[in-house]
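Hey L., structure's done. Input below.
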Amino acid sequence: MKKNVISWFEIPVKNFDRAKKFYETVLEIEIIVMPSMPDKPMKYGMFPFDMEGGGVGGGLSQMEGFEPSTKGSLVYLNGGDDLNNPLSKIEEAGGKILLSKTSIGENGFMAYFMDTEGNKVAFHSNK
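Output:
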């Protein structure tokens, strides 16, 4: 049996450095820049995750064919103990809150935002 149905996600970006700064600021994390593949010009950065413990990971990807979007799949990022913390940094970092902190009953809270690249992304927290 699989521990997680999702194993990896990628958020497409137009301006890697701007997007990296946005997510590092809002989530208070460090995105690890990966080397480009010789046959494919790209910029790529990984969000921190528990690789050894089987955690779900993801990254920012700037390459041909990757287009930011407000439509399609919605990625929920870990909003920490309280969504008010990352949400308070969204607009100052260049993003826009689309749905403020909203209760989803016993499943905690969620919120939607648009990042600096035009992606609709979400947060989830238990409190």
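The radius of gyration is 15 Å. The mean pLDDT is 92.

-- N.
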